[in-house]
Design goal:
This protein has 141 residues and is α+β, with helices and mostly antiparallel strands. 44% of the residues lie in helices and 18% in strands. Helix 1 packs across helix 3. The longest helix has 18 residues. The mean pLDDT is 91.
């Protein structure tokens, strides 16, 4: 994928998350940007979402790599309400080497600015240990 296209998609995704006020599910992303065959999955065999277009997956990955957005754990009910839940077991605590079979970790997307506002308001990352984990991962929160 060309860098201009990737940057453009990343900017469009960022704008969409900002406009919706954060807490954006991957189902909402798919409704806006289309369905595809790409999956975002971690080294621990934890699926974040499947069924994204190549451009959307690349844009999300770029924003995550740039630390402009964050995947924040959510209740699977969010996805039930949105009408789509992957047919995978839910990831709870991945073993050291990762899961043998794919597991799903329900998450929603927030911009770093939205996370910081939520922390300041006392309703996001209220546990200092949670905030420390994200800081260790390179997020400036």
């Amino acid at each position: 994928m060309e860098k201009d296209t990737e940057r453009n998609m990343a900017d469009r995704l960022y704008e969409f998350i900002t406009e919706l006020g954060g807490g954006v599910s991957f189902v909402e992303i798919m409704h806006k940007f289309g369905e595809g065959e790409y999956t975002i999955i971690s080294d621990l065999n934890v699926v974040r979402w499947c069924g994204l277009t190549r451009e959307t997956a690349a844009g999300i990955t770029k924003l995550l790599d740039e630390r402009r957005i964050l995947m924040y754990p959510t209740n699977p009910i969010v996805y039930l309400i949105d009408g789509c839940i992957p047919q995978l077991p839910i990831a709870k605590q991945p073993p050291k080497g990762g899961y043998k079979e794919p597991h799903w970790a329900p998450a929603v997307l927030w911009t770093i600015e939205q996370i910081k506002a939520g922390m300041k308001g006392g309703y996001m990352l209220t546990d200092p240990l949670d905030a420390a984990i994200y800081r260790e991962a390179g997020y400036e929160i």
